[in-house]
Amino acid sequence: MTDQQDSPKPLDSETVAAYLRLHPEFFIDHEELIPELRIPHQPGNAVSLVERQVKLLRERNIEMRHRLGQLMDVARDNDRLFDKTRRLVLDLLDAGSLEEVVGIVEDSLRHEFQVPFVGLILFSDNKLPVGRSVSSAEAHQQVGGLLSGGKTICGVLRPHELEFLFGKEDAPQVGSAAVVSLTYQGLHGVLAIGSADPQHYKSSLGTLFLGYIAEVLARVVPSFATPLRSVR
């Protein structure tokens, strides 16, 4: 009777698991148990705990290296974008005419940034000698919803919006676009870039540099376009 009372009670698996979680160093002090452990890996096979841990660590290492590689790629892309944006901004500051400003923006976006579709429209009640210009009333009628808020808008646009921004010839080829207004002490125009891929401009995440370019343009353009319409 005494032997039954003094015999230890069997431990269930949950109790053992809880103890090992609290004492992860347990097998350091009891290395003799490691060779006897078997963990199911694939049907019909078993691996030791050490082998399983090594495999898991190797898989995690590969995953972390993959994530690090992705972060490095993003960093390199951002460095290249920053350098292109810096050169564009400096060229705009050195421009001596509205014709130079329009040419610099369109050439840089098409060739340096590799943007296939570019639309730069200035708002003026009188036709400007260079580039595309429309009255502010016409702009609000066609793309008024894209001009409010002063933020970059991305996604799939409606056919009439694409036609206004990129022209009849290019509009059917544009799958998605990013649009930002040129706003500084008034509304002076709109800048749009497009891609044939409907998913390319699906959020504003990758258009930070476009916003910077638009801010510089909004300050540079009015000094060369006297009749430029300023809407507050």
Automatic annotation (TrEMBL):
Database matches in InterPro entries: DUF484 (IPR007435), GAF-like_dom_sf (IPR029016)
**Which Pfam families has this protein been placed in?**
DUF484
Q: What is this protein called?
A: DUF484 family protein
Species for this entry:
Ectopseudomonas composti
